[in-house]
Amino acid sequence: MKLNYQIQGAGAPVILMHGMFGSLSNLGLVGRALIDHYQVISVDLRNHGESPHAMEMDYPSMADDIVELMENLGIPKAHLLGHSMGGKVGMQVALNRPEKVDKLIVADIAPVDYTPDRHGGVLEGLKALAQARPTSRQQANELLAEHVEDSWVRAFLLKNLLRADDGHFDLRLYLEGILANYYDTLTLAPTGTPFNGPTLFIKGADSAYIQDKHRETVMRLFPNAQLKIINNAGHWLHAEKPDTFNRIVTQFLAGNRD
């Protein structure tokens, strides 16, 4: 699958992969912090943004999308940085195709199975938007507020609105493909052969996605892993504490150069 992407900067390539319901703009702050020293490739993962739609949506196929993009761009090896779902995609690439990965950065997700109830309200809200096809962003926000209390999360989700020719708003997301896989394949852990390359997990202190009980699994699959914790940050740590997040990322990439 040929993913939509944007390239900025020059140098060693770094591929940025967003989380569920996001797009390539979500990691824009860290991308801008890297472009002076790296070639930054921001991608829309399948069924998100302007990338193609598919009913098949699991981590092996999404990892294959990244490898295909690298091959199409003539990139033999790259640093990978992924947030949440994008972090699982990055881990899957590293576990299956380690020769393609230089350094791996995983933001607030672990290589474990998760219960499928974390986004229940979000999914119901997005389904309501898709069915109602609102005519204004205010109307869309009000519809979404019936299912999603957090105004910051609503603002994030509303970035997926796209005005159609008839004046109504549709979703850029391929919601049908996401819903078909969300409750099974998308909650699963990435699997494969342990990746021995430099790996950094970054956790938001207020987030429960990475827990002490995950350490054994993390170290088994990523024996050269380290963990950094950002205080006063939750799951959206790259947006909540961008200066701290960007500093951790740039120091990790620079400190482990050959």
TrEMBL record:
InterPro entries, per the entry: AB_hydrolase_1 (IPR000073), AB_hydrolase_fold (IPR029058), Epox_hydrolase-like (IPR000639)
Keyword terms: Hydrolase
Pfam families listed in its UniProt record: Abhydrolase_1 (PF00561)
Stored Gene3D superfamilies: alpha/beta hydrolase (3.40.50.1820)
GO molecular function: hydrolase activity
Domain AB hydrolase-1 span(s) in chain numbering: 13-242
PANTHER family per the UniProt record, alphabetical: PROTEIN ABHD11
Designated name of the protein: Alpha/beta fold hydrolase
